[in-house]
Design goal:
OB fold (Dihydrolipoamide Acetyltransferase, E2P); 5-stranded mixed beta barrel; about 100 residues
């Protein structure tokens, strides 16, 4: 799947792209637990999307990394699409 084809509130079977920026990690705590989250930007030839990185994913990637998201989920926050691995997805660093 290409980034330009990703729609809000839908599953994303597989997408691959380059991490072009990574924001500051921040702590969170809610009724389901606590941990770290950070926003990154994922880009391919067709576009760019905000990618939410959770806990150990933050340490796996750096700017310039090529990653593959499998079984991801695209949500929307304040009118902006956000991709994440969701409950059942997987992030793999390709290179």
């Amino acid at each position: 799947m290409k980034i330009s084809e990703i729609q809000s509130r839908t599953s994303v079977p597989e997408v691959q792209g380059e991490i072009v920026s990574i924001g500051e990690a921040r702590q969170f705590a809610n009724e389901r637990g606590s941990g770290r989250v950070c926003d990154a930007a994922l880009k391919d030839k067709t576009g760019e999307i905000k990618l939410s990185l959770w806990n150990e994913q933050i340490d796996q990637v750096k700017e310039g990394s090529t990653v593959k998201i499998e079984n991801g989920w695209c949500s929307e926050w304040q009118g902006q699409k956000q991709l994440s691995t969701g409950k059942f997805g997987k992030l793999t660093v390709v290179k």
